[in-house]
Amino acid sequence: MLSIKNLHASVDGKEILKGLTLEVPVGQVHAIMGPNGSGKSTLSRVICGHPDYVVTEGSITYEGVDLLAMPIEERARKGIFLSFQHPVEIPGISTAYFLRSALNAQHKARGEPEIDAIDFLKVAKEKAKLVELPAALLNRPLNEGFSGGEKKRVEIFQMTILEPKLAILDETDSGLDIDALRVVAGGINTMRSPTRSQLVITHHQRLLDYIVPDVTHVLMDGRIVKTGGKELAHELEEKGYDWVKREVAAGVAL
Amino acid sequence: MSDVEKLVDAPYKYGFVTDIESDTFPPGLDENIVRALSAKKHEPEWLTEWRLAAFRKWKEMEPPHWQNVKFPEIDYQAISYYSAPKPKKVLGSMDEVDPEVRKTFEKLGIPLVEQMRLAGVAVDAVFDSVSVATTFKDKLKDMGVLFMSFSEAVREHPDLVREHLGSVVPVTDNYFAALNSAVFTDGSFVYIPKGVRCPMELSTYFRINAAMTGQFERTLIVADEGSHVSYLEGCTAPMRDENQLHAAVVELVAKKKATIKYSTVQNWYPGDKNGKGGIYNFVTKRGICEGDYSRISWTQVETGSAITWKYPSCILKGDYSIGEFYSVAVTNNYQQADTGTKMVHIGRHTKSTIVSKGISAGHGQQTYRGLVNIQKRAVGARNHTQCDSLLIGPDCGAHTFPYIDVKNSSATVEHEASTGRISEDQLFYCRQRGLSAEDAVSLVVNGFCKQVLKELPMEFAVEAQKLLGVSLEGAVG
Fold first, then answer.
1. CB B446 to CB A92 under 8 A?
2. ipTM for the complex?
3. How many domains would you assign to chain B?
């Protein structure tokens, strides 16, 4: 589904991704772990087309198509979703209105019928339950005054409505207590299917107790330096990243 | 150019010119022109004299220079003060409106044929200097509501006009009010009798068509005791390279327990991308809450004009009277706006609310200027002012000049202000969800203006939302 080859990307002239290669087949959940500053968030933004990041080398293809040539919204309409680490506030625009506009923009682009406010609300209320989001929150301006936990739940709620083919979850666990984490992970897991893929970016292993990845990658200094199964996450939790660093230095991992 | 900056290049949709033979005065202004204008409109002697007195005052006055906008001196002798489509026979019905003029309004989405009416809205259409049609006049008359062109009101209800004309905005109030008093041409007149709730929105649509002319309209709304009216005005003009002057005066009078809601969607031609052409919109709007428990509410969405310079104000004379001002102003490219309100609290327990939302993009410059004046007698007066600016791109500006003058220690006055930008992160977020850059800006802007837009009558809120989107098109991309 997603194929990244030798990706180099920089922001403000500083190279962050330095030859990253990653393959996410359809139906799989891949975790990307790595220490702070290794380029995890940069990777998620580059996949989604954030204008601050310049790709200097390499390629990203999505369903066989060159992703880098597509504007941000087109990538979204083709089924790529990013759960933001820091979701933005949009004062004056209700969460429900925002999401329905987004959903209809996607439907329109795909030639699917638009959904009216009443039908939308029915679906939205159902989906809100999945992440234990009070229905009243749908009428509040998007993310304005929401707690950190509410913001994350709203991100996942949006994901369940937009039903993306490729969901990128950027540090979705940060700032969540253990109960909220379980709820959010539950929401994410409802989206797991043989036709969808997920890229779970985190630097804690604890999220991966709830979202069990098919494959785990370690991202360091802008490159994937180690790939393994779900047990790799536990190993990292126990031994820390220094162990991988030493391996890389010794030329073992690659 | 950043993403946010690219979204401000929308073509002006209403810039067409109607090719029509018109009866236009030669440029220039003197007493003979004032007399000729008055004669053209078959006005009574008292009004001709009133105009002449205003003209003489105006000649002694100096154009104001305190406003935070820049423009070359206006040559008042280069303007034509009267232009009307020919033939100018008195119209008996809609069918007699010149088909070209009618087509113009249809193109603007203002059908003058009553069968094609806007749901629940009566319209008075003003083309250059004259009112060409007023819909639903008869139906309204059955309820005692008078809604007609100003010229007609002068003929048919001279006493009402004479009693209130200049009572809220005196002739000498300011330079442009004096000029308007001398040469005003047409506009709307509304009278709502005691206890009547006007059953439909009343609306005037102003269209400037002729070149080298000014539009000087005059609107007077009188709401008698316990009555209620909602009035809306819309405006457009063709794209022309030279600047055109629009200097209107609007007076509102609310008697005891009366409510007047006055909404404006102003979309005069703003000039081109480089600031060439566009309307100078120098307007004096003021209402008096004369009776106790009366209420005047101004709502304005100002997206057009090269320069907007207006302060719809309320004089809160009656005890417990309420004044409100809700404003959205957009300045894009080289547009300038110096706008705000004056709330003068005279009566006891008077209350005023000011919500001003300014959006600047391109090289737009915008100033909020507001006065809250609480006089000695105004025991328990309250004001709340909220003044927010949204900037799009690095070359625009927002300025705030709040004046607060309190002479009664029991008053409560609050002022809040904020300035923000549409962030790249907001845009990225919206686009990541599948919205186009244009829709994303429009969404953020509409959210920013929500508090004001919700004050507009339903039918127009949707229009205003679209207009905001169009005005900022090209600001981001």
1. yes
2. 0.96
3. 1
